[in-house]
Write a structure and sequence with these properties.
This protein is of the alpha+beta class. About 25% of the residues lie in helices and about 30% in strands. A five-stranded antiparallel sheet has the order 7-8-9-11-10.
């Protein structure tokens, strides 16, 4: 059993996977046991100055997590963030950087398939002049389909515009009011099932 510590909380859940491999023409059946935390209900997550409801999180590692977006540009537009509050990309440790991108790769692959998309846009806005509205590193993961934008690169203008709107509308003294928590929790629940072995 592997036990990990994240933010002082013990991590524990069991996942059993079975896979078959062909080696020299022989089928090999192996059973793999993994223990990791995916009990997001008992974990706490922050996104810059905001506390994130665990029901919005659909995938987590000891160093990163993926959550649904308050204002998605396209169906499946999600965010991948480091667990540690890190304002700028260059402030990440090597392990955090690696885990963040591996998490984005895994999440992107499954979200792309789930939404029957044919491509992905992965984007980081690193710092206020780059359009970052929340001072916490995050990767936008957007499943893409032909014709979703008239010109492919318009997605970046749309991300910039949404970030500006978000910055203007988010007020630390007010609750977020865009999508309901129920709507986001439902979406996260659907995505969570993509990561069961």
């Amino acid at each position: 059993m592997l036990k990990l510590q994240v933010s002082g909380k013990a991590i524990l859940s069991t996942v059993r996977c079975r896979r078959q491999a062909r080696v020299s023409g022989k089928a090999i059946l192996s059973s793999v046991r993994c223990r990791r935390q995916m009990t997001t209900s008992s974990s706490s997550f922050v996104f810059g100055p905001y506390k994130i409801d665990p029901r919005e999180v659909f995938y987590a590692t000891p160093l990163s997590y993926a959550m649904v977006n308050l204002r998605p540009l396209l169906p499946g537009h999600v965010l991948v963030c480091p667990r540690r509050l890190v304002p700028r990309f260059t402030d990440l440790t090597a392990d955090e950087t690696s885990d963040l991108w591996l998490t984005a790769q895994k999440v992107g692959s499954r979200i792309e398939t789930f939404h029957n998309a044919s491509s992905l846009t992965l984007a980081i806005q690193d710092g206020p002049q780059a359009g970052q509205s929340v001072p916490h590193v995050h990767i936008h993961v957007l499943p893409r389909k032909g014709g979703d934008f008239e010109k492919n690169d318009e997605i970046y203008d749309a991300i910039d515009e949404k970030e500006k709107e978000l910055k203007q509308k988010l007020d630390l003294d007010k609750d977020r009011v865009d999508r309901s928590i129920e709507e986001m929790a439902n979406e996260a629940s659907q995505y969570r099932s993509l990561f069961d072995c």
